[in-house]
Amino acid sequence: MSARGWSYRYVGPVELKAAVRPGSGGCRISSAAEFGGWIAGRSAAELAEPFTFVVGTDGVLRLAPRRSEHVACADGAMVFSAGEIGFVREADRWAVSEVSNQSTGYCPDVTSWPAVARALDAVGLGRPSGFTHEVVFRRCPGCQEHNIVREDDFVCVFCGSDLPETWNVDPTV
């Protein structure tokens, strides 16, 4: 944990991380001008669905097409948050229409929102007050599988064991 938030390492399939090529990460967006240039190059079809995003440990937003792997968007590095994000044009500026922490590669906790908020504020994007869709990730202490907790049912879908109430996906933390 740092002053800027908890950092998450990639916990997904090793073959996906092994396929990441240096410099192939998502587009780094650290200013309104960078976002303006990036969004101007998106097609109507791309804008109709959410994008892949990460917030790197430098606090900067990175964006990639939706079907991109989060670990590729992050250039294989640790992140403060990861998920999916959608944008809408409101009057004379862009705003976030939806944002989640849905990343099965990093499995960030819902408490990663402040890092996302800081990154969006730095770019000058209007945003909600939190994730519009929160995903609760847990690792089963019994079978070690990663789970998405639905409807507050903290039971492993793989083996039926109870899941912990607190985030525990990365066994090294």
Your description of this structure?
- By secondary structure, this protein is α+β, with helices and mostly antiparallel strands.
- The model has no long low-confidence stretch (mean pLDDT 94).
- It folds into 2 domains: 14-133, no CATH class; 135-173.
- The chain has helices spanning 14-18, 32-40, 44-47, 70-73, 113-123, and strands at residues 27-29, 51-56, 61-64, 79-90, 93-100, 136-139, 146-149.
- It is globular, with a radius of gyration of 16 Å.
- The protein has a 5-stranded antiparallel sheet. Strands 6-7 form a two-stranded antiparallel ribbon.
User: Main sheet, how many strands, which sense, barrel?
Assistant: 5 strands, antiparallel
Termini separation (Å)?
9 Å
Find the count of extended strands (DSSP E, 2+ residues): 7
How would you sum up the global shape?
A: globular
Radius of gyration: 16 Å
Total helical elements: 5
Write down the overall mean pLDDT: 94
Strand content range: 15-25%
Range of helix content: 10-25%
Which structural category do the helix and sheet elements fall into?
alpha+beta
pLDDT < 50 stretches: none
Major sheet: arrangement of strands: 1-3-2-4-5
Concise structural overview:
19% of the residues lie in helices and 24% in strands. 32% of the residues are buried.
What layout of secondary structure does this protein have?
Blueprint: H1 14-18, E1 27-29, H2 32-40, H3 44-47, E2 51-56, E3 61-64, H4 70-73, E4 79-90, E5 93-100, H5 113-123, E6 136-139, E7 146-149
Antiparallel strand pairs: 1-3, 2-3, 2-4, 4-5, 6-7
Protein name: Zinc ribbon domain-containing protein
